[in-house]
Structure formats: structure tokens, C-alpha cells
Amino acid sequence: MKKLVMTTALSCLLASAVAMAEVKQGGSMIVTYKDDVSTLDPAIGYDWQNWSMIKSLFNGLMDYKPGTTELVPDLAESYTISDDGKTYTFKLKDGVKFHNGREVTATDVKYSIERTVNPETQSPGAGFFGSLEGFDAFNSGQSKGLDSIKVLDDQTVSFQLARPDATFLHVLAINFSFVVPQEEVEKWGADFGKHPVGTGAFKLDEWKLGQNLTFVRNQDYNKPGLPYLDEIRFEVGQEPIVALLRLEKGEVDIAGDGIPPAKFLQIKNNPQYKSLIIAGDQLHTGYITMNVKMKPFDNVKVRQAANMAINKRRTAQIINGRATPANQPLPPAMPGYSTSYEGYPYDPEGAKKLLAEAGLPDGFTTELYVANTDPQPRIAQAIQQDLSKIGIKADIKALAQANVIAAGGDAQQAPMIWSGGMAWIADFPDPSNFYGPILGCGGAVDGGWNWAWYCNESLDERAAIADAMVAEDQQAARMKEWESIYIDVMADAPWVPVFNERRYTIRSERLGGGESLFVDPVHIPVNYENVWAKDVQ
Description:
It is built from 15 helices and 21 strands.
């Protein structure tokens, strides 16, 4: 046995040495997108297209280990959390420089987060900092800053929270926390997003609006050896079909918009592309909401019946199997996901019995709202067919996405909503992010995202207690509590979780890097700083 262990270890070392030998410094890559980039300002950018671009240009105090959801220090060298879970103190790395050559200090950290919370910035991420002491006063314009962020010296910054918040380290890893130089923001004003200056692996070299953006290697990057590439060129205005054809010809390295649905099966089943297509789980769930404030969905048995009526496997086939059936709000890749919970079975006859017990043996008529962009109406039709088999006659209301969102935020308008195209993708890999905005009482407000209008105050209290479990030795218990919370949510059945989409990326043969880099759960869609080109001379 001892000999076997030594042999295995030696094999791992040899494999690691071979892998490192393949890594090459230099070269470039081309990425295509249909639409132009809206902004590269980390306080403003909030879409999947610019997410990984911004991560390539900027850094925060925390980040995630490449290809994983494991938190690690980034601009921080180390950090401590007080025993009461309310004070976080960070020591910065020495010598980290902005792209303009100036060294980063703790004052830059304070400025950057205050800038995000400042109502004048109009950042969509301001609310993530709600646990900071003094947040409400500053975000509402009643005070001029956050005294709870203290610069202790040039390399040390502390944060005072109003309450323990186990998600705070995650918040410090999202783009809204990324550090920016005040002088550059003031120089460019509202145009800073077109002239970004950060500390990241790459820096913006050129941006021709409507045509392309060029990132070049940051020679002063604080992580030795990274990035591997010298240049990334993002070409915009490229139709996905055209981008795919160019990739086949070797003119493009990554089709940023993915494989076009009409071509998916053809490409996926072609042996030529087998090694080039990479699939990975997303922190995503597509679901049907049922408005618990509207009859008959105020009856839990009706909601449970709807859960048992949907053939989730058939629904996933509508998007060419690019999803797996869901049985709970959390996706499998999310910490806190219950591997033992089986959910509601597909059982139309059992669903009919529940409707009869609810006093609706002949079913009822309702409305199912859906975004009018393909394939969402087709998915809604499949849901409609399944519901009809148990006597629920759902009229489909296909509207522009903005109108569906507005209907969901009105307690009296939408009995049922298929969330496709608007379904929840986590802002950060923590189970609380799937609860508060879309299942908690705080989201069940006019204009909110809790379209089921579900409010269980006892679960809210348990969620608050779970998020106050900050200590490292409490995290296993915290995840167990979140697992229990979501199982109890499913007992109330405000949703029908339908499927968890998988992300498929197609890359050229000339790119190297572990598969997880191309379907990174956080650096969506690609972790650019760790990818390399194989054909560097």
C-alpha cells in the first residue's frame, strides 16, 4: 500500500510537470460577441458579457480559486474577522499597482466601495453592501460617506458591519467591490467605463465602439507569471452563426455568445468538435412562480399539484438537453444544495388527487406569463400542455421581458410566470443569494423579484440566523441550515423548479487551459488570465 501511494504521488508530480511544460507565455486570442459592450466600469457593469472582461481589468480584496467557488484573498494579503462577526480587517499586498503606475492603498479601497454605495453613482450593486454600518444613511443621501470603512494605515482597511454577515467576503469578491483610482474616475467622469484603469491582469489598449476592444498584458500584474496571453481582441457586431463559421476556419478562438441553438445538436454530435466543446454547471435555476396571494394558488395543495404535473425532462429537451431537471431552488453547483432531497415526483394522477382535495376536481383556468423571446414561448407551451393534463387551463401571455418583470412585481397581475430568460443566476456562490431577493419577504414588494409573493417570516428569521454564522467552524452547520430552509420552502411549494441550465463553450484548438477555465462558475464566461495559446513560437 505504501508503495502504491508513493507511485501515485510521483505520477501526479510528473503529470503536473508535463502540464506546466505545455503552458506558454505570449500569443493572443480573438473573442466575438453580437452586441457591443455597455461599460467596463466595475461599479456599473452588471451583465454576463462584461462580467469576465471587468474581472480581467480589475481586482478586489477577495476572489475565487480559478474554476471553483472557493474564496481566496486577492488584493488582500490576509484578513481577520472579529469574534462577533462584525469587524473585518484586511492587510493589502505590498506593491500592487494600478495600470497608471500608482500603488494601491487602503484609501483606494474605501473610495471605491463608497463610490458604489453613493446614490449619485447609481450602481445596481449598491444594495450588496447593506450590512455596512451607516449604509442606509449614505445610500439615501443623508450622510456624505461610510465611517464604517476605516483606513488604519496605507496597507490596512477595516469594515464595521451593523450585523454579522457571512456573505460579506463574497460581496468583496464581486465587481462592485473592485478597486479603482480616484484620480482616473474624476478625470473621465461618466466616461470612466470607456477608459477603465484597474489593477487587473490585462489593461485596455484600444476601444473602437461598435467594432472591437483590445486588452494587452499588464506587465506589472501582482501575480507572477500571469496572465499568459499578451493580447485579447474582442470583436463585436458578430452574429453567432457567423462567429461559429469563423471559429471553424480558425479565425476566432471563442464564440462569446455560445453555440447558436439552431446549430447546437449538429455541432455537439460532430466528432470534429468533441474536444472543443466544454460543458459546465451554472449557478442557475429556471422556475415557474405561483402567486400565493391570488386564488387558487393561495392553497398549498394546488401549488404542490402543479409541481407534480410538470414533466421536467421533456421540458429540458426543448433546449436540446442543455439543462438537467431541477428539484429545489438551489442549483447542484451551489453550496447548500441538498443531495438527499428528491423533490416532487412527476405524477399527474397524484396531482389530480391533490386538486380534488383542494376542492378543484375539475381544475381551473389561469394565466402563464412568459418572455416572448425564443425558446421561452415554446417552453411555456410544454408547461401549458402538462398543466392541462391535470385540469389546469393556463392561457399563455407572451410579453416583452420588461413587461413580464413588471407583471411579476405587481401582486395582483401574474398568477404564474415562467422565469426563462430572466431566471436567477447567482451573483455569488452562496445559498443566501437565492433566497432574499426571490423567495424572502424583502423581495415580496412592489417592483420586487419575488414573483410568487411568498413570505414565510419564520424562514426569514432562520435565514438571518444562518447568515449571522460567520466563524469558519460554523460553515458546515450554516450550509446544513440553508439546506433545511430550502427543503421547507419546497414544502410550501411557491415555485416549480424546472431545470438547471448548463453552459456550453466552444473554443479553438489553439487555446490551452483546464476545462474549468472556460466554464468558470464565477468568471463568466471565461477566466481569461489563466488561458494560454499553444502556438506561441
